[in-house]
Design brief:
The strands form two sheets. A six-stranded mixed β-sheet has the order 6-7-8-3-9-10, sandwiched between helices. It has a four-stranded antiparallel β-sheet with strand order 2-1-4-5, with helices on one face. It is globular, with a radius of gyration of 18 Å. Helix 5 crosses helix 6 and helix 6 runs parallel beside helix 7. By secondary structure, it is of the alpha/beta class. Strand 4 and strand 5 form a beta hairpin. The chain is 38% helix and 24% strand. The site of adenosine-5'-triphosphate has 13 residues, from helix 1. Keywords: ATP-binding, Cell membrane, Membrane, Nucleotide-binding, Phosphonate transport, Translocase, Transport. Pfam families: ABC_tran.
Length: 250
């Protein structure tokens, strides 16, 4: 369970990106975070794995206060949280399986990493993760020979190989065409439902957010202005989240 209690985030330049954020996310929820560019979506999800430190309030994950974590405890904590980026963050000049196995590196002795000799169990888990996202047949293909959608699935498989309890995804479908974006959203949904992994996605596509997420959190100017079910998102709610600018844009 992720709990924000009156959380603020002020960047070093004095900019207040999160203002008095309070919310809690149960294990296994699928949450879409929507809002204008600069609203604070990335900041919000990046505080959860402590890519950004909060500056006031309290943030706990499964009862652990995130800001109190240091060294090995922080590393271990982060192993439970997968992160997916818009740009996939893969090593494109090597194979899919090697990218997925990268998830296992923190647990391995240095000699295994240097020689690239992975335990059979890790190789099987990496192949299983690829199977879960439907690209097992690409295991030995170089990443730069894959489409954007396939690359995002490799990133998802790498995250799954980490056995996370939570997946944070920062604009995971922003650079994909509409058909591929839907397929990747379906992957997230399936993983969320079958493996009960909590999924938090920052997304600019309101239609996809409403179609795939169970819960929607709307942010405007660093404040939560909507937090409820996807079905209850009305035009008025969207006007509040987007300051009435959504209609102008379509
Ligand atoms: N390192 C930083 N230092 C100062 N200000 C920052 C920093 N990172 C982000 N900000 C500011 O904080 C605000 C929120 O940024 P954030 O990236 O969280 O927004 P976002 O909703 O994810 O936007 P986008 O949809 O464009 O990714 C923005 O005004 C941004 O300029």
């Amino acid at each position: 369970m992720i709990v924000f209690e009156h959380v603020d985030k002020t960047y070093a330049n004095g900019y207040k990106a999160l203002k008095d954020v309070s919310l809690s996310i149960e294990q296994g929820e699928f949450v879409a975070i929507i809002g204008l560019s600069g609203a604070g979506k990335s900041t919000l999800i990046r505080t959860i794995n402590r890519m950004h430190d909060i500056t006031a309030g309290k943030l706990t994950v499964d009862g652990v206060e995130v800001n109190s974590l240091r060294g090995k405890a922080l590393q271990k904590f982060r192993r439970n949280i997968g992160m997916i980026f818009q740009s996939f963050n893969l090593v494109t000049r090597t194979t899919v399986i090697k990218n997925v196995l990268a998830a296992k590196v923190p647990e391995l002795p240095l000699w295994r990493v240097i020689f690239g000799i992975f335990p059979e169990k890790d190789c099987l888990e990496a192949l299983e993760a690829l199977d879960k996202v439907g690209i097992l047949d690409k295991a030995y293909t170089r990443v730069d020979q894959l489409s954007g959608g396939q690359q995002q699935r490799v990133a998802l498989a790498r995250t799954l190989a980490q056995n996370p309890g939570i997946i944070l995804a920062d604009e995971p479908v922003a650079s994909l065409d509409p058909v591929t974006a839907k397929q990747v959203m379906q992957d997230f949904k399936r993983i969320n439902q079958e493996l009960k992994i909590s999924v938090l996605i920052n997304i600019h596509h309101v239609d996809l957010a409403l179609q795939y997420a169970d819960r929607v959190i709307g942010i405007s100017g660093g404040k939560i202005v909507y937090d409820g079910s996807a079905e209850s998102v009305t035009k008025d709610v969207l006007d509040e989240i987007y300051g009435g600018k959504l209609e102008e844009a379509v």
